[in-house]
Design goal:
Elements (H helix, E strand, L loop, with lengths): L5 E7 L6 E7 L1 H4 L6 E5 L9 E5 L5 E6 L20 H8 L1 H13 L3 E3 L9 H11 L11 E2 L3 H6 L6 E3 L5 E3 L8 H10 L5 H26 L4 E2 H12 L5 H14 L8 E2 L1 H10 L1
Length: 281
């Protein structure tokens, strides 16, 4: 099947109910096995709102998610560097939702595949260099390799356990259970407050460093004992001097489950579910 063949999808804004027909390449559905395809609908495409569209492999609409990325992509300029990729280059090319997914994949240590058209050369080494700069330096640092393959090659491949993004920023595959990307969105917004491209990278790295320290802190606790979610959030907040909400705790759980391959995540208990289990016994 030609990579140029497309499906018409009628989307409806979940806020104002405005409708618009968008085109999505067929190959995205042909190679999908599990999970949803995620497409960011930017302001101006359908209406004045932006949201995420969820499609299954049959191109059926499974739902929408209202988002507030707070990033005006029209005001984001590409860097002047021709031999390196920076945060704003990725934002301009793929959009803020796709970039948030890239950072999330980095946190969880999943492979990243960014597709390219036949008119583009591979920039795999550039992507790899940029994203590895985000990772904190440590003796156990794993080198992340980013693949930048052709769309037509992806159609023939059988890829499941990797983040896959197409050349226009459509998130074709996410190998994790969907959770809000609050940390990733906030760290991108914070980085864009800085003009210097290299400094933006260090802002993200600082945020990731703190997050990994929190993950190590949680790991040390659950390797020894069970703990209730509320008690764990209080311990993290007390030790790191900042509030911890459910979204951050869920992110820490995913980091421990995937990056650290820690099976003790199940030791983190929900108070209500624990009481229900006690009642059953």
């Amino acid at each position: 099947m030609s990579e140029n063949e497309e499906k018409d999808i009628k989307v409806q804004c979940p806020i104002c109910q405005a409708e618009k027909v968008i085109k999505v390449p067929n190959y995205i559905f042909d190679n999908k096995k599990v999970g949803n395809i995620k497409i960011q609908i930017y302001k101006g495409i359908c209406c004045e709102h932006q949201f995420i569209l969820f499609l299954n492999k049959k191109s059926e609409i499974m739902g929408y998610e209202v988002i507030d990325m707070n990033i005006d992509l029209s005001a984001v300029e590409e860097s002047r560097s021709k031999d390196k990729i920076y945060l704003r280059d990725m934002l301009k090319t793929y959009g803020d939702y796709a970039v948030s997914c890239v950072i999330h994949s980095l946190l969880l240590d999943f492979p990243i595949i960014i597709l390219r058209t036949k008119y583009e050369g591979s920039r795999a080494s550039d992507f790899t260099y940029f994203l590895n700069k985000i990772l904190p330096d440590s003796p156990n640092k794993k080198i992340l390799l980013v693949s930048n393959i052709l769309e037509k090659d992806y159609q023939k491949a059988k890829i499941e356990n990797a983040l896959v993004i197409n050349p226009t920023g459509i998130v074709i595959n996410t190998p994790w259970k969907d959770i809000p990307l609050d940390f990733e969105t906030n760290i991108v917004n914070k980085s864009l407050e800085i003009i210097d491209d290299s400094t933006q990278t260090y802002i993200i790295q600082d945020g990731v460093t703190l997050l990994f320290k929190e993950a190590e802190f949680v790991k040390a606790i659950i390797d020894k004992e069970d703990i209730l979610e509320d008690d764990l959030k209080n311990k993290i907040a007390s030790n790191f001097m900042h509030n911890v909400d459910n979204q951050r705790l869920n992110l820490l759980k995913q980091i421990l489950e995937h990056r650290y391959r820690n099976g003790n995540v199940k030791r983190i208990k929900n108070r209500l579910l624990s009481k229900l289990d006690e009642g059953l016994w």
